[in-house]
Amino acid sequence: MSRIVLAAMGSLGDLYPLIAIAQALQQRGHDLVFATHRKYQDIIKSLNRTFHRLRPDTAPGDTQEIERMMDLKAGT
């Protein structure tokens, strides 16, 4: 089957729905990888899923870094 990367750059409210999607995809035989903040690594590992750190590694709530990344001229 396919190898699918599920990326979450936000809060747990973004991550948990992807976990549910991952369970359904795994039941269909897909290989899943999570790309998200280092802060969530333990959650992903506890579910026996592959974790890759998403960069920039900003923690949710780091408003100064998030504002810098979302700047219309200099951001992403």
From TrEMBL:
The keyword Hydrolase does not apply. Residues 4-61 form the Glycosyltransferase family 28 N-terminal domain. Pfam families: Glyco_transf_28 (PF03033). This is Glycosyl transferase, family 28, putative. Keywords: Transferase. The keyword Transferase applies. GO terms for biological process: carbohydrate derivative biosynthetic process; carbohydrate metabolic process. Signal peptide: none annotated. One of its GO terms (molecular function) is hexosyltransferase activity.
